[in-house]
Amino acid sequence: MFLQNAWGRIFGFIWVLASFNAVIAKEQIILSGSDSAMDHYIFSNILKSAYASLGVESKFTPLPSSRSLVSANSGLTHGEIARIQGMNKKYANLVQVPIAIMTSGIYALSLHKRAIIGWEGVSTQKVAYRRGIQIIKNELDKHHIQSDVVNKDRELMLFLLRKRTDLILQDKGLAISSMTQLKVEGIDISDIHFLVPPLIEVNLYHYLNNQHQHLLAGITKVLSDMKRSGELDKKIKDYFEQLMQNLNAPN
């Protein structure tokens, strides 16, 4: 009886130790992205929830946009939060998760309501954009449009407000986030107008470094399920509604 109790205690201790080690060994991944509000507050939280359902803890590291891609490609971080399709053609170590997290619209913004007809219309104006938004750079290069470049989303809005350019080109969500920030700071943004329709709409995708390709099937299924159930679109819709409420609230 004594031996049975002793062995029982030993096996119990081994089981507790194994369970403890399993918790300690829980896989972690570090995802980088731009230091924009969308990457901070929406994409990182969507992916945190998605990876948690796989038993993987994800952490977000904000970096300057171009450096973030280099870091994810080199393996210093383990993936990129959300980028346009095909970034793996330039960054060969990145694997694209095939489910679009969201569709993003690129708009021209101006201090005056005006009609801008596509990139041909943009080409007649002085324009600026934020460094690191590859889809905008690609389109400017494609249409041979000269532009000014700034380093931060907030700086881009101030560049327009200070009348240093006729138009700025920006993702709608990033633009609204920046405008909200400026409004909180007491800066008048009432003269800024989105010129419709958007110049281009693009899907944004999550990327993994190929060293973590074993997570591809799992995260693809989770994001697909979130998309199918409407959970993914609801999270994005709620985020934008909150942004718009903050933007339209009186000072």
Assign the CATH architecture of the largest domain.
3-Layer(aba) Sandwich
Question: Helix segment count?
Answer: 10
CATH top level class name of the largest domain: Alpha Beta
Shape: globular
Point out poorly predicted stretches.
13-24
Radius of gyration: 23 Å
* Largest sheet composition: 8 strands, mixed
Percentage of residues in helical conformation: 40-55%
Which secondary-structure class do the elements indicate?
alpha/beta
CATH topology of the largest domain: D-Maltodextrin-Binding Protein, domain 2
Explain what the structure shows:
The chain has 251 residues and is an alpha/beta fold. The chain has two domains: 2-101 and 205-230, Periplasmic binding protein-like II (D-Maltodextrin-Binding Protein, domain 2), CATH 3.40.190.10; 105-202, Periplasmic binding protein-like II (D-Maltodextrin-Binding Protein, domain 2), CATH 3.40.190. It is 48% helix and 25% strand. The chain has ten helices and eight strands. It has helices at residues 2-24, 37-52, 65-74, 87-90, 118-122, 134-142, 153-161, 172-184, 216-229, 231-248, and strands spanning 28-33, 57-62, 79-84, 94-110, 127-130, 148-150, 167-171, 193-209. The protein has an eight-stranded mixed sheet, with helices on both faces. Helix 2 (37-52) links the parallel strand 1 and strand 2 (57-62). The longest helix is centred in the first third of the chain and has 23 residues, at 2-24. The protein is globular and about 50 Å long. The model is unreliable at 13-24 (pLDDT under 50).
